[in-house]
Here is the input.
Amino acid sequence: QVPLIESGGGLVQVGGSLRLSCANSKLPISVYDVAWFRQAPGKAREIVAQLTVRGNKTYADFVKGRFTISKDNAQNTVYLQMTNLEPEDTAVYYCTVDHYWGQGTHVTVSS
Here is the structure.
């Protein structure tokens, strides 16, 4: 079991920003693909963004231009910078490193 510890979620108003973090002490993220997923109430889990070992970034269409995935290999931490948040972004956000999942962090965007 690899603990991925997510943080940074919370309540924010429409148009606001949050930065999610995902830290772990066992997997060197420099050699793994990392990603963020989310699951809104009553909906299926969906991928938000992915960052490959080679540095390629891909984003879901619904977050392009608003969210940025990044990582700090020295800190072994993955980030998701979220800006211009919308009520539709309300969800539990999960990070993944290789095939390991975090426990999720809640993001609520209020209008």
